[in-house]
What does this fold into?
Amino acid sequence: MTAPPPWLALLLSALLSVGACARPADRSPLRATESKPPSTTSTAPRVSSTTAPFDLFSLRPPAAATDPTSLADQIVTAERILRDPASTTEAGARAALAQQVAYRQLGVHPEWDDAVAVALPPQLRRPVELNAEARREFRAMHTRLPAVMPAWRIVEPPPAGELLASYETAAARFGIAWEYLAAINLVETGFGRIRGTSTAGAQGPMQFMPATWDAYGAGGDVNDGHDAIMGAGRYLAANNGATDIDHALYRYNHSDHYVRGVRRYAELLREHPQAFLAYYRWGIWYLTELGEIYLPVGYDEPTPVPVEDYLARP
It folds into this structure.
């Protein structure tokens, strides 16, 4: 759990799980103030337990905009659909992938921040800033990009309602805000989409090292979503997460970038509970020495494959 896995630049998602260039605080009109920890008494959004799986997980993301004005348009269009309760499931799924692509693109173009901010409606500036900052924090964790594709399977995540119920159960039992548990789940495996062990040996949807799971898993299955979320709540609580979440997150992964990135996503979930469904629909990206590669549901590599060989396949 303590060694940063090489795929943390995913997001997001992301934004999973989402380069990084910190700017002086007074230069960007998108500047987000340091967020307060989400309340441990906040309530997760209500989502039907039958929300997923659905075949729209096979959708592919659109291309990212190539200039700041077009990027702002892409963000505004996606956010409008995602915030509209009347949007269809398909429209929401497509918008979530467009949102993810846009935030990933903004994450590697901090020089676009001012122009994007000018083109955004005021109510979107803070969420856009927080998403970009989260992406940059996780991107900054990479010191060397892999030359091989991971030995993973990418599967559909558990139903959104089941995940939310597990977060709330863990929050009530351990005093850890559900938003932090959801943010960790997003960052670590895209809500359980990634099946496979990290290069550091971490396992399961919340990425536990074996010894840590033995200590905090309470005899559960590290690959079971509910058991893993409960284990994460137990571990964070044991590290004073109810009163010092930054310390607990640092214990979860020894990186200040990780702490700040998870905090950004947790704050977004607290301020905009509907953001959960958007993040839930984000796909998995893998950052390699040859660029970012989208891993669709159905990706299945039992052993690492050189990136060049993977890209050369028909």
